[in-house]
Specification:
homodimer, Neurolysin, domain 3, 3-stranded mixed β-sheet
């Protein structure tokens, strides 16, 4: 067996262990009774430790050296996918080798227990309980960031970003975010003025959770989600989980605002379609995994923001709302729905934010994360700093922790460095959709009929099926002909909101 | 670290991997969409392989040798629990070391796919499909039995029994089953005559699945099941799964016969109470696991058959049936319920069988399994042999495979050698309950009030809390003062059915 083949066998095991852990995570968030949390945390920590031990086994480094030497000596030894796979293997090894086993185990245990504390603390607005669990977790995350930074020769916060979106750095993000920060405040004002002049949008639509769920399943099916290979369930924080062949998304139902859950479902379905479209032949290998979290987010935002918060989609949706949710009253025709779907209003909850104010929520977290990792902000200072920046960027201050720093699951899982992906993903989504609509003239008329096949076909060929064959920004440029930037996103906003 | 301590660390990992696999199995049977089966089978096979590799690592055998030598040289080196734990470790190692890794992996994959085929074949009565998947699995099970038999120096079928109930052999089972075979046919005839003279029992009770489920949860709570540490769900075949701190039972609802699902729930709750009562301190160690499958079954039968198919329990149940299931009509008072709960009628479905005819179902499978493992019966011969023995023991022949050899999940999972546990468990259940009622005079009056605390207290102290501290038959004798036999079971039957 060649060194490369031996590595594929090793990474197959790692991929299977990751998938098993992903299922246990899904169960945790959707099915597990509270008493199971401690044992589950221990199981997940052990799986994480086994993966880490297997990846940092000295034989892996030796095999990587050997396979890289072989590939360099013989240009035909590996094809392009295998070369990209080998690169991905080395990257994973480098990250893992930088972290000692006991740190990995401690991080896994601390994030599992912090997540459980967060689940209890959020509804009771109990920041003190959260802080007590988060402070030791943050200390471990900082330790991890420092170790990774040394191995990758970059700043600690950049090392965390790298682990979510390979190749992405603060130096790339800063000019993009600066540009948006310069553009958005004035733009939000102009949109608010225009929308205010047009009168208040229709009030939120009430509907029982069961009816919302039935409609959600109908929409997922239209989008191309295969219920023979996936599920829709309920969790506190919507997410896309599961593993190859069995993609599981979740949402939460607000019986006073049906559109909120439906839009969350459309968003997670975008993630799910990406996962379902990854190449089966490479399922357990690094090159077969999703590219990165910004690219992942681009796929959910492409579905939710680009495709579905549009006039063609609301024309498809309006009769379904009546069919599934019953008597809809005034203002639930397609145009009223559209106005509601693109209504811009600064608020407190990131996942409920419109696409115009969303970047402010991300920039807020980006600034706080950098300060937390740099040691310039302590845990107890989060609520105050949060409120100040929220006020600065959006002109309002949250009145509760639940509306502030307790709203997101990420930090409680030790996931710092993830948030910038959301806005980088929004920029990518605009570029991908723009290119797809240019390449497929039938795309919009099809969406108006509830037919997503033209869009999904384009995505499968240009994005999903390529998995990690290229890094995210390179894949974006190949698919769209443009490097990552803010121009297409801003043009999209101007057309939709002031067009 | 002592050799013994190093072994405990190793077995902790094995225990955690088993628990993770148990959760993935539960998900398979309750939540997983069909498209996930192939990937899930691969995940489970890999977890199984990792456990096997870790257990058969040459260091484990060396550590066992060393720990045993230390324990022998220094009588105070290990306490009684640790000694029993060390014995359990050696037994697991011996079984694992007898099986080559590729056989373990092949068994796991073949049983996962056969189980999926069975799930599809049972409702469509498709024996040919099942046979095609079962034949290669059986070949692997026979290979496993032969390898274990050589390592344990016993017959191949005995080696399989040993893996489910340590210490149990055909030589123990045969005289017990022979005794029952001599007693039961005449007894069934006498009971049928007496019950026939008393007139037909009340007809089955119809109720929507949701109402049955609500009542099932009410009864589980009365029995001592903690929904903060467990769940009730639906699966094709009722089972008790999950892992420490998170015990998950399942049932299936027949809307035309509410008592069927409720009794299945009571049965699985008995299993769940045993699992929940195992000592937390030994959670991941061999000595902390359930004793064996016969003892496990004794706990479910003790709850279902001994405690709940009784007049005191039906007096507790009758008003709840009315409360949860609505208008009950004639014959749903406590006495009519009791008559229905102890109604004896030879039938085809093992899990629906009354306790008097149940042993016949087990003896049937016991005979066929022995023949399959010995090579005296081929897969295609199962339906014919099944019908012949069914006719001989119960006087009726199944008209479909679904009513015959496709009814059980066990063989499709490669579980041969398990079935005798059911009837050995029934004998144990009678002995345990008899001793508990003797030790706790308040036991029956409490059950009539729906208070299971006296019974559960006795079981926790004498059975659950001891886990695998002793082998099953020894534990039975310590708790009840009697060795395993048929006398108490037969006395119970005579009192209940002809008393």
């Amino acid at each position: 067996m060649s060194a490369y083949a031996a590595l594929e066998a090793r990474f197959r095991r790692l991929g299977l262990l990751s998938d098993a852990a992903a299922m246990l995570h899904w169960d945790w968030a959707t099915m597990m009774p509270p008493g199971g949390a401690e044992a589950r945390a221990t199981q997940l920590a052990e799986l994480s430790l086994i993966r880490h031990e297997s990846l940092t086994d000295p034989r892996v480094c030796a095999l990587l050296d050997e396979a890289e030497t072989e590939a360099e000596a013989d240009g035909d030894a590996l094809d392009d996918w295998q070369r990209a796979n080998l690169k991905g293997m080395r990257r994973r090894w480098r990250e893992a080798a930088a972290l000692p086993s006991d740190l990995v185990a401690a991080l896994s245990e601390a994030s599992s227990s912090c997540e459980m504390v967060w689940r209890a603390a959020r509804p009771t607005n109990d920041f003190a309980a959260f802080a007590a669990a988060f402070a030791p977790l943050l200390a471990l995350v900082r330790e991890k960031a420092a170790a990774l930074a040394q191995a990758l020769d970059c700043a600690p916060y950049d090392a965390l970003i790298e682990s979510y979106e390979p190749g992405l750095r603060s130096a790339t993000i800063d000019p993009l975010f600066d540009d948006l920060a310069g553009f958005l405040p004035e733009f939000v004002g102009a949109v608010r003025e225009a929308q205010g002049a047009a009168g208040a949008p229709a009030p939120p639509l009430s509907a029982p959770a069961a009816a919302q769920q039935a409609l959600a399943r109908r929409l997922m099916t239209a989008l191309g989600f295969d219920f023979e290979r996936g599920r829709l369930d309920v969790s506190l924080h919507p997410f896309c989980g599961g593993a190859g062949g069995d993609i599981r998304i979740t949402t939460r139902y607000d019986e006073d605002d049906a559109l909120s859950a439906l839009m969350a479902v459309l968003h997670e379905t975008g993630h799910a379609l990406y996962e379902a479209g990854l190449p089966e032949d490479w399922r357990y290998q690094p090159v077969g995994q999703a590219c990165g979290m910004a690219l992942h987010e681009s796929q959910s935002l492409l579905i939710e923001m680009q495709a579905c918060r549009s006039r063609p989609f609301t024309r498809f949706l309006a009769p379904l709302l009546e069919e599934y949710l019953g008597g809809t009253g005034d203002g639930m025709d397609a145009e009223a729905l559209y106005r509601r779907a693109i209504h811009v209003e600064p608020g407190f909850i990131r996942v409920d934010a419109d696409e115009v104010t969303y970047p402010a929520h991300v920039m807020l977290r980006y600034r706080l994360e950098r300060a937390l990792i740099a040691g310039d902000l302590v845990v107890d200072g989060i609520p105050g700093a949060w409120a100040d920046i929220h006020d600065e960027l959006l002109g309002i201050r949250p009145a509760s922790h639940a509306d502030g720093c307790l709203q997101d699951i990420h930090w409680s899982c030790g996931e710092l460095g993830y948030f910038p992906s959301y806005t980088v993903g929004a920029l990518m989504a605009a570029q991908f959709f723009d290119a797809a609509a240019r390449d497929e003239p039938a795309l919009w008329p099809a969406i108006e009929r509830g037919d997503f096949a033209p869009l999904l076909g384009w995505l499968r060929a240009r994005v999903h099926g390529l998995a990690s064959r290229h890094e995210g920004p390179a894949l974006l440029e190949r698919a769209t002909g443009r490097p990552l930037g803010t121009v297409v996103f801003k043009t999209h906003l101007q057309r939709r909101y002031l067009g």
